[in-house]
Write a structure and sequence with these properties.
This protein has 13 helices and seven strands. It is of the alpha/beta class and about 300 residues long. The protein has a seven-stranded mixed sheet with strand order 3-2-1-4-5-7-6, sandwiched between helices.
Length: about 300
């Protein structure tokens, strides 16, 4: 079986020339832009928010892997005392609580598939783009405690275009032998290992147009074994969080309703798709399984 390490990477991946999808910020200085646009009332809020570690990461790096991991961990940090209090307040906002639900969705579904997995077959999981692959590390720890024989057959893969979260993921995984991390583009099908049981991808779709998202879903479908699951999500717009992200971080996300997300998955060739809303009502939590009776792809989005 061919693994991702045995496949050649395209030149654009080796060179690192592809931009990260979530890097939507364009202004060299957000305070300068706010001043030019006459939005002086937002400058005190901007300064205050920068005392929060969560907000500062969102502002400086367009809601990066550290931003997501901070939400997933749910631990408040900040500067000057008030920053920690503000961070805790931001973590209790609807958007943050909803974003955290996609982490638990991914972790819990990997475990559910693992518990149903045949005893005589390797168990293979991929997170793409993995960011800081906390869900994989937590699954490994839970299996190590509850099912060592299954863990011995498990392989955990992570793909990301940014080398920094890959290194942080390696540290978090403590260089455990079951983990492999590769710098590659999520839209490069040659980077994917074969015969995956689970692919986890949350957060990427919010920064891809429909045609690219259908292409990405199709790549995932092809990398799954028959019966394998794509665990993904989509986000509804929250007016307060969207306003703050657009004005103070220039983070521009694409929001989709559940029906729209399911339509794109079906265009990518999935026929066995289920979805539910999280408790907050902003995240569509999706499981798309590769069915043995799926028709051939028709060329993507029309």
């Amino acid at each position: 079986m061919t693994t991702m390490h045995e496949r050649a990477r395209p030149a654009h991946v080796r060179a690192g020339t592809r931009s990260l999808a979530n890097r939507t910020r364009t202004s060299p200085s957000i305070p300068g832009r706010l001043a030019r646009e006459g939005k002086l009332h937002l400058l005190p809020l901007y300064a205050l928010l920068r005392t929060s570690e969560l907000a500062r990461e969102g502002i400086d790096n367009s809601g990066s892997y550290r931003f997501a991991d901070h939400v997933y961990r749910g631990q408040a940090h900040g500067a000057l005392g008030v920053g920690t209090l503000l961070d805790a307040l931001l973590l209790r906002l609807r958007a943050a609580r909803s974003m955290r639900s996609r982490f638990f969705h991914a972790r819990d579904e990997i475990l559910a598939v693992a518990h149903r997995h045949p005893a005589n077959r390797p168990f293979r999981v991929l997170s793409v783009p993995c960011g800081i692959a906390r869900e994989l590390v937590e699954v490994e720890a839970l299996l190590r405690a509850a099912d060592p024989p299954l863990l011995a057959r498990a392989s955990f893969f992570g793909i990301d275009l940014d080398p920094r979260p890959l290194e942080l993921s390696r540290r978090l995984a403590r260089e455990a032998p079951g983990f492999r991390f590769l710098r590659a583009d999520a839209l490069d099908p040659t980077a994917y290992p074969d015969e995956l049981d689970v692919i986890v991808s949350t957060g990427l779709g919010e920064f891809l147009p429909d045609d690219a998202l259908v292409r990405f879903y199709g790549i995932c479908r092809d990398a799954l074994r028959v019966g394998g699951s794509l665990v993904t999500s989509g986000t509804r717009r929250d007016p307060v969080s969207d306003y703050l992200m657009r004005e103070l971080a220039e983070l521009r996300a694409r929001y989709r309703e559940p029906d729209e997300l399911l339509r794109l998955l079906r265009l990518a060739g999935f026929t066995d798709v289920s979805a539910r809303m999280d408790a907050v009502g902003l995240q569509t939590l999706v499981i798309a399984r590769r069915s043995p009776h799926e028709p051939p792809l028709t060329g993507g989005l029309r």
